[in-house]
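Reopening this ticket.

The earlier resolution said the output was attached, but the attachment link was broken on my side. Pasting everything inline this time so it's all in one place.
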Amino acid sequence: MTVLSPTQPSQGLGEPPRRSSRRVGFSQRLGRWDVKLSPYLYISPFFILFAITGLFPLIYTAFVSVHEWNLLGGQGDFVGLQNFTDVLAQPTFWKSLRNTFSIFLLSSVPQVICAIIIAALLDQNLRAATFWRMGVLLPYVVAPIAVSLIFGRLFADQYGLINGVLGTFGIDPIRWHADTLASHVAIASMVNFRWTGYNALIFLAAMQAVPRELYEAAIIDGAGRFRQFFSVTVPQIRATIIFVIITSTIGGLQIFDEVRAFDAQGLGGADRQWMTTVLYLYDVAWGNQKNFGRAAAIAWILFIVILLIGLVNFAITRSISTSGPSKKVPRGVQRARRKAAAAAVRAQNASGRPSGAPARSTSAPTGAPNERKKR
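Inline output:
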């Protein structure tokens, strides 16, 4: 019985053999999709939460800022940039912006300096180090309203503890709730009390990551504690210092709780002498005006101000990071490296030839003396 094979299509001379197209199964497609989409699925929760809690409120605030929007009446007509021009034309807004920058400078600069000093002290060999490290974090755990109420009583004009202590030294009482600069100092002290310990722990974590051989090399060079701090510690934690400065800037320009609870009215003083921009936003939205459109415009103006300051900080950070540390290695580090290399050579000589090293022949090659005699 003859078996007939299926006829193959005619193929020209010199042409490569034709292959039938292979069909990809669903499981193979699923595996390819898994390889391509899995990384995006792993990082998607962050972007989803950011879109819900960060991006959407920002966009919605921009939508509200270009409309006439009232707390009771709701959305009104489209007004464009009229809310922004109305806010910029009010003197109270500029006073609140000035107060915000004043309190920010009085709080952030001493805060960073004190945090570095406290972190340097906690980095030493102290007894009960865990107790002291937890102790500096306790003010951060206390509620901001409680801190504001306590400091509001401490800085009371008539019966405050601070004025009582000053009176024992013959100093006249300070009007903490009437004078502009005095009120800014009092509010800045609240901010420093709450955030200094938190930043100190961040600096402490960075200091503990500094290689200890750098301090040993500095000690070999005869550097003292202060010299080690400014020549070794500060350059090594420079990135952490920049991070703390940026976060302190963002938080310092959004001060609200301390200012709100500094007095019973919570409106920034009788003359608005310590009203910040966020407190002014709160007053416009839920105060007498109840104007959500202008409040949204204030929020966007503050966002632009923080963004500009962040860009300045980024430019400074980039210039510092591109300059980088000096390429010149200190003499102490060079000396320590030479000692380490010499110790390694002595250890190898004491233990014999290291494994994997080619054997060196100490005898002369065969026939070499005869050749030298012939010559």
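Reporter confirms the inline version is readable. Confidence is low (pLDDT under 50) at residues 324-329, 353-375. The domain at 97-285 is CATH 1.10.3720.10 (MetI-like fold).
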